[in-house]
Amino acid sequence: MPSATDRIEKQIQLNAPLDRVWNALTDSRQFGEWFRVNLEGPFVPGEFCRGQITHPGYEHVTMEVLVGEIKPQTYFSFYWRPYAIDPQVDYSHEQRTLVEFALQPKDGGVLLQVVESGFDQIPAGRRDEAFRMNDKGWAAQLNNNIKAYVEQ
Length: 152
What we know:
By secondary structure, this protein is an alpha+beta fold. The protein has a single domain (about 5-150), classed as Alpha-D-Glucose-1,6-Bisphosphate, Chain A, domain 4 (2-Layer Sandwich). It contains three helices and seven strands; from the N terminus they run E-H-H-E-E-E-E-E-E-H. It has helices at about 20-25, 30-35, 125-150, and strands at about 5-15, 35-40, 50-55, 60-70, 75-80, 95-105, 110-115. A seven-stranded antiparallel beta sheet has the order 1-7-6-5-4-3-2. It comes from Lacipirellula limnantheis. InterPro entries: ASHA1/2-like_C, START-like_dom_sf. This is Activator of Hsp90 ATPase homologue 1/2-like C-terminal domain-containing protein.
């Protein structure tokens, strides 16, 4: 059974149409606008998608995700290596965490849930910091970035 530090769970009620929220998550160009990453291609299940982070202070980081499942208008997932930001470190031996987005129409908008799991598999030396930074990061991405993007 996973520990309490193995997963981050966040949710937000968005006052936007389902298709707007869905496209903001699964169209890699739109995802990049609110997530602050310049992705090089589309999200395709089973394929990698990568690009440069554009968030100030993290422009040196290349984000790489392995796209998981895409279930239209309800579920999108990818795998990545959380908080892998030091260009001098080879993270390729590390397990990836699973990031899941679930959408549910609610109260004239969309309830968006994000779950990132698998932190217990991250090397102990960086596990706590990766968890803490991603916990703060998902809060900001939901409460500020995607909310502003889809509700504009």
